[in-house]
Amino acid sequence: MTKKVVTHLELEGFTKVASGKVREIFDLGDSFLFVASDRISAFDVVLPNGIPHKGQVLTQLSKFWFSFLGDSVENHLISADPKDLPAALAPYHEELEGRFMIVRKLEMIPVECVVRGYLVGSGFKEYRQSGTVCGIRLPEGMECAQKLETPIFTPAAKATDGHDENISFEKMCEMVGEDLSKQLRDLSIDIYSRAAQHAAGQGVIIADTKFEFGMLDGRIVLADEVLTPDSSRYWPEDEYVTGKNPPSFDKQFVRDYLSTLDWDKNPPGPTLPDEIISGTTDRYLEAYRRIVGHDL
Questions:
Q1: What residues does each domain of the chain span?
Q2: How far apart are CA 250 and CA 256, in angstroms?
Q3: CATH code for 16-105?
């Protein structure tokens, strides 16, 4: 697996249709090429440094989960094999190695399907204020990072400025229809529960996650990345205690470092020191190793 850090990518002859905080999306005609860069963002600001292997971890973990979920949900992946890339991309194979997926074009559903198994993050913040999470009332006296009796579905509306907005299930029904909303809710909770059970056997807690879905010929299709440290909160089970935020296998390590700086959380972001970069790489690689059962 190449160690080349990729923070920006242009592919001559191929139109880039989107560039997100991490992903570059190129049009291949009847499909898209998704490329996970090594960019990292915190507080909605993309930082100057890339994190070695990050894009490869995101891609290879997504591949693992797509395969693991098998027949339980259709997904958008066509191929992640270099031999299926257009011949014109041969000069870019080193940059693309391990970090690309050729995927089907879908009509994307404008709602992020968030499932929470533990009370933490923005959910815990809302709970302290109102006793609810996205309008769902929870028992009194719950602590930070406490496991919920059953996972809850807390959708979010996708926003163009990067700040997704938590919405109620009723609002989701208004946006995309009641039948589709119920299908997505039930499917999301089922996927999360299957994944959380596997992860628990590997010593990892998946505290929460978010899924994106699209439609293809009237069918619901799982899209984008799935169950990665960027879209999920991964905790080491042996360090988990109720009442405080456990250490995690994601970019919380970077956020914690940035919180020690005199930075107003507006662009440009600060340059990360080498020890924070290497520590972050280690966490992403450890997440992959634990979940999949071998090194990247």
A1: 16-105, 108-251
A2: 11
A3: 3.30.200.20
d(CA 80, CA 139): 44
188: DSSP letter: H
Tokens 């609002």, located at residue:
171
CA pair distance 211, 227, nearest whole angstrom: 8
What pLDDT, on a 0 to 100 scale, did the predictor assign at position 250? 82
Rounded alpha-carbon distances, angstroms, from residue 199 to 26, 76, 185, 191, 289: 32, 23, 21, 12, 11
Three-state DSSP class for residue 260: coil
Q: Cα-flanking dihedrals φ and ψ of residue 196, to 5°?
A: -65, -35
Structure tokens at 226: 């799935």
Identify the residue whose tokens are 């490329």. Answer: 35
Q: Are 127 and 119 in contact (CB under 8 A)?
A: yes
Burial (CB count within 10 angstroms: exposed 0-12, middle 13-18, buried 19+), residue 8: exposed
Helices first, then strands: H and E counts in the chain: 7, 17
**Both ends of the chain: CA-CA distance in Å?**
8
Supply the pLDDT for residue 15: 98
At 277, the amino acid letter reads I
Cis status, amide bond into 268, omega within 30 of 0:
yes
Distance CA 123, CA 116 (A): 8
Pairing of strands 146-153, 165-166: unpaired
CA distance 76 to 135: 31
Which class would CATH give 108-251?
A: alpha beta
- The secondary element (H helix, E strand) that includes residue 274 is helix 274-292
Written as six digits, the tokens of 219 are 């069918």
* 20, two tokens: 């997100």
CA diameter of the chain: 60
The residue whose two tokens read 């923070």 is 7
Q: Which portions of the chain are predicted below pLDDT 50?
A: none
pTM of the model: 0.94
**Taking a C-beta distance cutoff of 8 angstroms, is the pair 138, 104 a contact?**
no
